[in-house]
Amino acid sequence: MGCCNRRCGLIAGAVVGALVAILGGILFPVGDIIIQGTVETEAVIEPGTTAYENWVAAGAKVYRQFWLFDVMNPLEVLEYGATPAVVERGPYTYMTRYLARDNITFHLNHTVTFLLPNGAIFEPSMSVGTEDDKITSLNLAVAGAYSAIPTELHSIVETLIKTTNSSLFQRRTVKELLFGYTDPILRGDVGFFLDYNQTYDGPYDVFTGKDDIAKVGKIDMWKGSRSLGFWNDEYCDKLNGTDASSFPPFVNKKEPLFFFSSDICRSVSASYESTMNLKGIDVYRYSLHPSTLASPLDNPDNKCFCSNMKTTKNCTLAGVLDISTCQEGRPVYISLPHFLHGSPSLRTDVIGLNPHEEHHKTFLDVEPTTGFTLNFAKRIQVNMMYGPSKVITVLKKVKDYTIFPLVWLNETATLDDETAEMFKKELISRIQMLDIIQQNRFQRALQPRWRRGSKEPERRCRFQPG
Known about the structure:
With 466 residues, this protein is α+β, with helices and mostly antiparallel strands. It has a domain at 58-98 and 119-198 and 227-414. Helices cover 20% and strands 28% of the residues. The chain has helices at 10-14, 16-20, 40-43, 50-55, 74-80, 140-148, 154-163, 174-179, 344-348, 357-360, 417-446, and strands at residues 62-71, 86-96, 102-106, 111-117, 120-122, 134-138, 169-173, 181-183, 188-190, 200-207, 219-222, 257-261, 266-278, 281-288, 320-322, 332-335, 363-366, 373-386, 402-414, 449-450, 457-458. The strands form five sheets. Strands 1, 2, 5, 12, 13, 14, 15, 16, 17, 18 and 19 form an eleven-stranded antiparallel sheet that branches. The longest helix has 30 residues, at 417-446. The N and C termini lie close together (6 Å). One of its GO terms (molecular function) is low-density lipoprotein particle receptor activity. It catalyses: tetracosanoate(out) = tetracosanoate(in); (9Z,12Z)-octadecadienoate(out) = (9Z,12Z)-octadecadienoate(in); butanoate(out) = butanoate(in); hexadecanoate(out) = hexadecanoate(in). The chain crosses the membrane at residues 7-28. Belongs to the CD36 family. One of its GO terms (biological process) is receptor-mediated endocytosis.
């Protein structure tokens, strides 16, 4: 601004150490804290920076809570074609994402490749029962074979069901349903999240921010490709945004945030909902827009996500996403819990579902200066489809295609009280101090100074635009 601002910026240098000290421990940080160019060096993801040392670690604890749908009337459905009635059982809680990033490799194009190890440790104190609790659920092998095997060969499915004494529903333990059991029909292991403890998500390639800090954390490739290849469409196959653990700094609430989720095999966006107070920290709450899973009639952009005209009622069904193309042909459908924002028919085809916006929506609480996600709840429901058959006995009473709920999960993480206090002390308070100092300096500069023995004020500074 001129000569009166000669000390401006010194305070920014003084807070660098305090700022970068908190980069770890807040939801898989990737180094998004930037106050102009002062912190950019430490925010880049590269060996030697504070951001890297904390980014490579596991970060805050992430929990997955599972609610499984227990079928109350399996015999009535089989013998009389009754509408299935379910009751949710849960939560059964597991700690996940506790393992550090693996196979980290840097590239010349300012990206870094890594794997995210999957792991799940049961937390009895946060669960309603044990992993040995039994649930009556849909038989995954029967539903899968119904869709995977052509109709003209359904007699084979019928033979397999009879010889193995299987049925449309089965009773299994929570652990079996979630993480796998040996199925007599397939003679192999199946489960909602089969072998989760022994798998990886990725590899991911993300931008380090070395050449452009506005790209830090954004995904360049997933599994070696810049396109998903699931949807046979450029728009739907686009990798867009980050992994949602953080975003580039200085978030503009007027613009949506984009992120990719491998759980649903697509990129989505979240819109600003409100400003919240999280343990004394102002955060922007972002949530998925209801149009995310809307039918193509209401959201034409979703046309490329509709691949099965029969099960989606000519692409008019809202609230579900057929991800069979990324599940090796298995008839898996993703939705929000209890078919929130879904077509009414989804909730009349299965009795016992009660969607609630507050309990079942997905949201992110993002600190706008740093871009860190300080609190989130990712809520997803896993469903499978089955339908009528003239050959398969256990399906002869089924009247129409049914998208049946298996389980819904709530993946959550939040900063703890200690980290929140550190965040407020080392970041928020110092930014406020910087503002106060700048305001005071500006006010003093406007006050006239008098020369000794003079009646006229001395002009000590000349202000220039910008």
